[in-house]
Design goal:
Blueprint lengths: L18 H4 L12 H14 L5 H8 L3 H13 L3 E7 L7 E6 L5 E8 L2 E8 L4 E8 L6 H19 L6 E8 L3 E2 L4 E2 L13 H9 L3 E5 H13 L7 E6 L3 E7 L2 E3 L29 H5 L1 H20 L8 H13 L3 H25 L3 E5 L7 H13 L2 H6 L3 E4 L6 H11 L7 H7 L1
Parallel strand pairs: 3-6, 6-9, 10-13, 13-14
Antiparallel strand pairs: 1-2, 3-4, 4-5, 7-8, 10-11, 11-12
Bound molecules: zinc ion.
Zinc ion binds next to loops.
GO molecular function: DNA-binding transcription factor activity; kinase activity
Keywords: Kinase, Transferase
InterPro entries: ATPase_NBD (IPR043129), HTH_MarR-typ (IPR000835), ROK (IPR000600), ROK_cs (IPR049874), WH-like_DNA-bd_sf (IPR036388), WH_DNA-bd_sf (IPR036390)
C-alpha cells in the first residue's frame, strides 16, 4: 500500500449528522493546574490544522484566548510550533497562523510480530525518517529479543543523523493480551514461550529511553489517528491483519482501551460455530479461520493439494509468510482457487466487522497490516459487501472501508506514536515539562 490511497468502494458515511458529532473536538478546561492537559489539547489542534490562528484555537478548544496565548508562547519557545504566515481577518488586522514543526522531536517505534521486527524513527507528523526490518527466529526468546531491539533502535537513530536527545521515547507494539499498567506481555497466543514478560522495563533499561508498550492493533489505530490528520478525525475501527487479527477502536478521537487495556480482540470473534480450534482456547474464531496460516490450510482443504502445487506453495509451517504471500499474489492475478480462498476469509472478516459496526456505530473502517499485501482491493470489496450490503443498514449509515494511510508500517508507526499521543505518559506532557 502507498500513502494517500485511492478511493475505497464505500463512500464516506456522512449521511446522519447528529448534533453530538459536531461537538466531538476535544475541549480544554480553564481550571488552573491542568496546563499539561491543555497544552496537549492545543498542540493536537495545531497538529491537525494546516495553519491555525490563536483565536481559532480558542474557539476549537473552548479555552480563553489568554490561556491559548500563554500555551502558544510556551510551545514557540520549546520549538514545537512555528508562526508560518498570516491570514486576513474581518477586522482588517491579519492573524498569525501557527503550524507544528515536525522535525522538532522524534520517537522510535518497534513492532514485534512473531517472526518480524520492524523499527522506525518517526517525526512529529508521523512521517517515517528511517526504518529497519529484521526477521526474528521462530519463537523469539525474550532474553535475546531485548538486546536485538536495543541494537535496532540504535541503528535507526544513528542512520537518521538525529541527536539522541531529540528522541522523546520508545513505543513497543506486541500482540496481546497485555497488562498495560505494568508493561507486561501476558502469554500472547502468537508469541510462544512468552509468559508475563516485563518488556517495558527491560527495553526501557536497555535503551535508556522512556518506553511504553501496547497491543499492536491499538498502536496501529493510534498511529493512524496521529498520521492521518483531519482524514482520521472522529471515530473509526482499525482492523489489523498481520500474523494475528486485531482491532483498534478510536471513538470520538479517543482510543477505546477497555477495563484491562485489551479492548479490540477482534480476531477472537466467533465466525464459525464449532469451527477450527483457536490458540486462545475457543473454537471458530476469526483468527483461526482467516490468519495467513489458516488461509493456506483452507486452500488445501477446499481446493486440494493440487491447487497448492499449482501455485508453488511449500506447505512448510515455517514458511507460512512466504506461502501466504504467494497465495495473495495468485489471488490478485486472478487464480480462481486463490481468489475464492481470500474472498471467503474476507467475507468472514466482513461478518465480524458488521457486528462491530452495529455495536459501535462507527462510519469508517480502516484496514492495515502486511497480511493485506496484494489483496487490499479484494478484501475491501468483500467487507464492503458485508457491511454495506443491506438496504436498511445503508439507510442508517454507509460505512467507508479504507486502506490505512500509514501503510504496511502501521504497527511500527503506531508504536512510535504511542510516545507522542496525548493520552499516554510520557507524551506531550513529558516534553513540555522538560522545556
Ligand atoms: Zn480465539
Amino acid at each position: 500500500m502507498t500513502s494517500r490511497q485511492r478511493d475505497a468502494p464505500g463512500t464516506p458515511g456522512r449521511s446522519l449528522a447528529l448534533p453530538e458529532a459536531a461537538a466531538q473536538k476535544r475541549s480544554g478546561t480553564n481550571l488552573p493546574r491542568v496546563g499539561g492537559y491543555n497544552q496537549a489539547v492545543v498542540l493536537d489542534a495545531i497538529r491537525q490544522a494546516d495553519g491555525v490562528s490563536r483565536v481559532e484555537l480558542a474557539g476549537q478548544t473552548g479555552l480563553t484566548t489568554q490561556t491559548v496565548s500563554n500555551i502558544v508562547r510556551r510551545l514557540l519557545s520549546a520549538g514545537l510550533v512555528a508562526e508560518t504566515g498570516r491570514a486576513p481577518s474581518r477586522g482588517g488586522k491579519r492573524r498569525t497562523l501557527l503550524t507544528i514543526r515536525p522535525d522538532a522531536y522524534f520517537s522510535v517505534g518497534v513492532h514485534l510480530d512473531p517472526d518480524m521486527a520492524v523499527t522506525a524513527l518517526v517525526d512529529l507528523s508521523g512521517r517515517v525518517v528511517t526504518r529497519h526490518r529484521r526477521r526474528l527466529p521462530a519463537a523469539a526468546d525474550p532474553d535475546r529479543l531485548v538486546p536485538a531491539v536495543t541494537r535496532a533502535v540504535d541503528r535507526v537513530v544513528a542512520a537518521s543523523g538525529i541527536a539522541r536527545r531529540r528522541v522523546l521515547g520508545l513505543g513497543v507494539a506486541v500482540p496481546g493480551p497485555l497488562d498495560t499498567r505494568h508493561g507486561l506481555v501476558v502469554e500472547p497466543p502468537n508469541l510462544a514461550g512468552w509468559h508475563e514478560v516485563a518488556l517495558r522495563d527491560a527495553v526501557g533499561a536497555a535503551t535508556g529511553l522512556p518506553t511504553v508498550v501496547d497491543n499492536d492493533a491499538t498502536a496501529a489505530a493510534v498511529g493512524e489517528r496521529w498520521a492521518g490528520g483531519a482524514d482520521r478525525a472522529g471515530s473509526f475501527l482499525f482492523l489489523y491483519l498481520g500474523t494475528g487479527i486485531g482491532a483498534g477502536i478510536v471513538y470520538w478521537d479517543r482510543v477505546l482501551r477497555g477495563d484491562t487495556g485489551n479492548a479490540g480482540e477482534f480476531g477472537h470473534t466467533v465466525v464459525v460455530p464449532d469451527g477450527a480450534p483457536c490458540r486462545c482456547g475457543a473454537r471458530g474464531c476469526l483468527e483461526a479461520h482467516c490468519s495467513p496460516a489458516a488461509l493456506v490450510a483452507d486452500l488445501v482443504e477446499r481446493h486440494g493439494k493440487r491447487a497448492a502445487e499449482r501455485l508453488g506453495l511449500s506447505l512448510d509451517p515455517l514458511r507460512v509468510r512466504v506461502d501466504h504471500g504467494t497465495l495473495c499474489r495468485a489471488a490478485r492475478d486472478g487464480d480462481p482457487a486463490a481468489r475464492d480462498t481470500v474472498a471467503l476469509a474476507a467475507r468472514r472478516i466482513g461478518q465480524a466487522a458488521l457486528t462491530a459496526v452495529n455495536l459501535l456505530d462507527v462510519s469508517r473502517i480502516v484496514l492495515g497490516g502486511d497480511a493485506l499485501r496484494g489483496v487490499t482491493d479484494l478484501v475491501i470489496a468483500e467487507i464492503d459487501r458485508q457491511v454495506n450490503g443491506h438496504a436498511i443498514a445503508r439507510r442508517v449509515r454507509t460505512v467507508a472501508i479504507e486502506p490505512s494511510l500509514v501503510g504496511l508500517d502501521a504497527g511500527a508507526v503506531g508504536a512510535a506514536s504511542l510516545v507522542l499521543h496525548g493520552t499516554y505518559a510520557p507524551g506531550w506532557r513529558m516534553l513540555l515539562a522538560e522545556s
